[in-house]
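User: Let's play a game. I give you a shape written as tokens, and you guess the letters that built it. Ready? Here's round one.
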């Protein structure tokens, strides 16, 4: 059974990551928000530091790049493993800066896809790559089953054609996990993911997007024009299994959605901690021993914000814990992402409101956090998509039965 306290073995990791987030990410947060598309060179040193921590074996999951769900031979007791470490690490890093966390070398969402669906041989072969993830296309957003990018088998390779948009780290990453269909007539079951090195002919970055938030992170449009990808770079099984639909590809989200939830929690926690300082500095007391309706509006609102944040945090830990213990967590992953994405954005915007003119000024990071938080309610499945997935799971209905 899950214990709601942070595992003892991971407390040292959290302390280390928090110090890194404060000294590297928070310290450079405004600099790279203003210098959109400029590569954060400070991250090279940080990436080397994190690699060293992970290679030492003393900090499981420190890379926070997504981890696999493998059946454990030992069934006794419970396990707080790499999923839990990844989520806790991401919360601390995004307390520092979301955009810079997304810019970390070898920490791409594509790395989570590799960890989720790749074979052991592929994981070893692709170790060390920095992988972006390309799903969304101009014709669709959150409906991943609507993929139109094609992958046609030609000898010992697949030829990929299509256009992908909103690819996080699409320019900086050295490879891209591309979702494509093997057969449009076969529907969802034919959708597979491919590891596409950007050194291959036929893949190019068309342009970079200018964005509301997470400006430190590059967001690219990628075009695949007769790009020949080795057949062994298809992640997982190449078989089109209509019984399983595209559950293998979608398993990626069971891992990445708790990570995105952790991003939202970290960003919201940064806002709420700074807001507390401003409120108390203005002489307002937040009293946990009195009913909220008997306190000032600012104090009562702050208490409600804290409660929402705690609920999102606990849902996220539950989803990570279930993955570590080989329990299906598709429902819980969507609940965590849906709750954290929404309340994260609500909290950062309320913090701007309550801080008044300071909340809207660039002298504080509150306005930046409110901008950064919006994307966390959108990517990896919008709020509405999460609610739809949750309803299907709770009611026991298929995607065709509940649209």
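Assistant: Ready! My guess for every position:
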């Amino acid at each position: 059974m899950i214990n709601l306290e942070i595992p003892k073995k991971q407390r040292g990791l959290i302390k280390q990551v928090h110090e890194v987030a404060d000294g590297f990410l928070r310290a450079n947060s405004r600099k790279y928000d203003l210098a959109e598309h400029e590569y954060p060179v400070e991250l090279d040193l940080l990436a080397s530091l994190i690699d060293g921590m992970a290679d030492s074996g003393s900090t499981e999951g420190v890379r926070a790049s997504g981890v696999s769900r493998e059946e454990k031979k030992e069934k006794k007791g419970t396990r707080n493993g790499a999923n839990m470490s990844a989520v806790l690490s991401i919360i601390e890093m995004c307390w520092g800066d979301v955009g810079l966390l997304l810019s970390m070398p070898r920490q791409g969402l594509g790395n989570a896809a590799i960890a989720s669906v790749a074979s052991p041989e592929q994981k070893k072969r692709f170790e060390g790559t920095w992988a972006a993830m390309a799903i969304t296309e101009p014709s669709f957003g959150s409906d991943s089953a609507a993929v139109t990018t094609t992958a046609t088998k030609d000898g010992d390779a697949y030829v990929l054609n299509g256009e992908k948009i909103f690819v996080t780290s699409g320019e900086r990453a050295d490879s891209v996990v591309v979702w494509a269909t093997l057969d449009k007539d076969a529907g969802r079951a034919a959708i597979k993911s491919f590891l596409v090195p950007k050194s291959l002919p036929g893949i190019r970055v068309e342009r970079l997007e200018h964005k509301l938030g997470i400006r430190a992170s590059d967001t690219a449009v990628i075009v695949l024009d007769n790009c020949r990808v080795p057949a062994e770079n298809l992640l997982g099984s190449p078989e089109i299994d209509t019984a399983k639909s595209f559950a293998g590809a979608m398993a990626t989200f069971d891992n990445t959605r708790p990570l995105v939830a952790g991003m939202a929690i970290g960003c919201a926690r940064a806002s709420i901690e700074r807001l507390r300082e401003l409120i108390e500095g203005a002489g307002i007391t937040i009293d946990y021993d009195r009913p909220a309706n008997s306190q000032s509006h600012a104090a009562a609102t702050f208490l409600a914000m804290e409660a929402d944040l705690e609920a999102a945090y606990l849902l996220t830990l539950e989803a990570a814990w279930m993955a570590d213990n080989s329990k299906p967590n598709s429902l819980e992953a969507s609940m965590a992402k849906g709750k954290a994405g929404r309340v994260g954005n609500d909290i950062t915007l309320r913090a701007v409101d309550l801080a008044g003119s300071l909340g809207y000024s660039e002298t504080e990071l509150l306005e930046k956090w409110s901008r950064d938080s919006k994307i966390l309610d959108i990517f990896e499945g919008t709020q509405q998509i999460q609610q739809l997935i949750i309803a299907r799971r709770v009611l026991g209905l298929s995607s065709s039965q509940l649209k």
